[in-house]
Write a structure and sequence with these properties.
By secondary structure, this protein is mainly alpha-helical. It has a single domain, classed as Four Helix Bundle (Hemerythrin (Met), subunit A). It has ten helices and no strands. It has helices spanning 3-32, 38-72, 82-87, 90-97, 102-117, 134-143, 149-153, 155-169, 179-206, 214-222. 29% of the residues are buried.
Length: 223
């Protein structure tokens, strides 16, 4: 494993460990409670809220770590894979959108695009959302050139987790009625956290954030 991948892996592992320790304590308390009583209902609500908090917190942390790691490499846009290079052009896209006419748009594009590709890529690592719906997580992974397929396989359960968390936050009745229901949400959230970590570390180790060859750089950026 590369030095960078090993460093990020260590950071993500340490973050996962303290989160999983908290979740284990909360889950144990739930399973010690009498079935069907008030204590179980209260602990179900507390556990769902905690699982969501760690799912959101870890996924945002992992994505931010990945973006920050790539940023510190100070790579030029032309040396990045197509999705990352495109993502780093957000500010330039805003400049083009402000054009008052087609002429101004294409003048800006033609005069600046080549030079911008030769500049160091700049990224915004913030996932700007108060609810980390799985669809939003998949958009972010895809935007960074990371595989989101396995998150998609968990989409139904993760959507349920977010909905239940929102109901708890707004003082509504919890839909998760049993420990079995909770276990399904717990499994989906922790699996998603591990899958995101694996994607981040794997991409850094394989250096898939870079284009494979100069010829591919030309082809992909001109496509």
């Amino acid at each position: 494993m590369s030095t960078l991948a090993a460093y990020i892996s260590k950071q993500l592992t340490e973050d996962l460990l303290w989160r999983e320790a908290e979740l284990a304590v909360m889950r144990k308390q739930l399973y010690l409670a009498a079935t069907g009583g008030l204590q179980e209902r209260v602990l179900l609500r507390a556990n769902v809220a905690m699982v969501y908090a760690h799912y959101e917190g870890f996924c945002k942390f992992a994505v931010s770590m990945y973006v920050d790691a790539i940023s510190k490499l100070k790579l030029k846009r032309k040396d990045l894979n197509f999705k990352l290079a495109t993502y780093s052009l957000g500010a330039f896209r805003s400049v083009l959108k402000d054009s008052s006419s087609n002429l101004e748009f294409f003048e800006k594009f033609l005069m600046q695009f080549n030079s911008i590709l030769g500049e160091i890529a700049i990224f915004d690592s913030k996932i700007d959302t108060s609810n980390l719906w799985p669809s939003q997580l998949m958009v972010w992974l895809d935007r960074l050139g990371l595989d989101s397929k396995e998150i998609g396989e968990l989409e139904t359960l993760l959507e349920s987790l977010v909905r239940n968390r929102n109901q708890i936050a707004h003082g509504q009745k919890l839909v998760v009625a049993s420990r079995a229901d909770f276990d399904n949400l717990f499994s989906a959230a922790t699996t998603a956290m591990h899958k995101v970590a694996i994607e981040v570390v794997g991409a850094l180790d394989a250096k898939s954030y870079k284009l494979a060859s100069p010829s591919r750089t030309v082809i992909e950026h001109s496509a």
